Amino acid sequence: DTEVTQTPKHLVMGMTNKKSLKCEQHMGHRAMYWYKQKAKKPPELMFVYSYEKLSINESVPSRFSPECPNSSLLNLHLHALQPEDSALYLCASSQGEFSYEQYFGPGTRLTVT
Amino acid sequence: GEDVEQSLFLSVREGDSSVINCTYTDSSSTYLYWYKQEPGAGLQLLTYIFSNMDMKQDQRLTVLLNKKDKHLSLRIADTQTGDSAIYFCAETGTASKLTFGTGTRLQVTL
User: Fold this and answer.
1) What is the mean pLDDT of each run of 10 residues along chain A (113 residues)?
2) CB nearest B43 (choices: A43, A45, A100)
3) B101 in contact with A, Cβ within 8 Å
4) CB atoms within 10 A of CB B23
């Protein structure tokens, strides 16, 4: 099973809302990632968790707050977002941090109104 | 920092071969990858090549690596309409993280 699942598939939220994106994998991978992808652009790395600890934060604004409750789950908590944060948010996982095979989920399409 | 470049668009006829090219600047790249992204979907890892190899074949896919020129290519034989997508090359090197290319949109016409 090489599946990474993400919920919800689509999310529309106002600038004052608080919402969360969820990601799950059952491949026993110990590294999980959040990427942001704008239209017609490549994914941009946001956060990396390795063995459930935050390893990399690519200078992401604090209105994005990641959480790794256990080795299979990764959340991204959203609060006070801006319209320019509208994008496809992709979760990925790999055996180890930046080990050669990263498996991506289908993404959550976020629209901030 | 590392830079990975691709041409933006490629159009081929169904049944022909497609060749998607990629150039990178990081001479310490260890692994190089090809990902496929269909509209509204996540990224699917198609294949990867280790930097000490110069070719890898996997069914209809052939990856060629010219390390001297820092050039990577993906050849898709007998291209089908289902191959229409955006293709990203990516590499891991000095910074360890995955650095993506700009993406090439492949259009397959009948």
Assistant:
1) 89 94 95 94 94 92 96 96 96 84 93 95
2) A43
3) yes
4) 17
- Taking only the tens place, the pLDDT of each residue in B1-13 is 568 999 999 999 9
Place of tokens 């948010």: A89
- Interface probe with B: pick from A25, A29, A98, A108, most Cβ of B within 10 Å: A98
Q: What are the beta bridge partners of residue B92?
A: B31, B98
Please check whether residue B64 is in contact with residue B73, taking contact to mean a CB–CB distance below 8 angstroms: yes
Quick check: B103 and A98 CB within 8 A?
Answer: no
Residue whose structure tokens are 């509204």: B40
Cβ–Cβ of A100/B31 closer than 8 Å? yes
Q: Report the pLDDT value the prediction gives residue B9, as an integer from 0 to 100.
A: 96
| pLDDT tens-digit profile, chain B (110 residues) | 568 999 999 999 999 999 999 999 887 878 899 999 998 889 999 999 988 889 999 999 999 999 999 999 999 999 999 999 999 999 887 656 888 999 999 999 99
Chain A residues closer than 8 Å to B56 by CB: none
User: For B1-110, where are the E strands, in sequence order?
Assistant: 4-6, 9-13, 18-24, 31-37, 43-50, 55-58, 61-66, 71-76, 85-92, 98-100, 104-109
Say if the Cβ atoms of B92 and A98 lie within 8 Å: yes
Q: Assess B104–A contact: CB distance below 8 Å, yes or no.
A: no
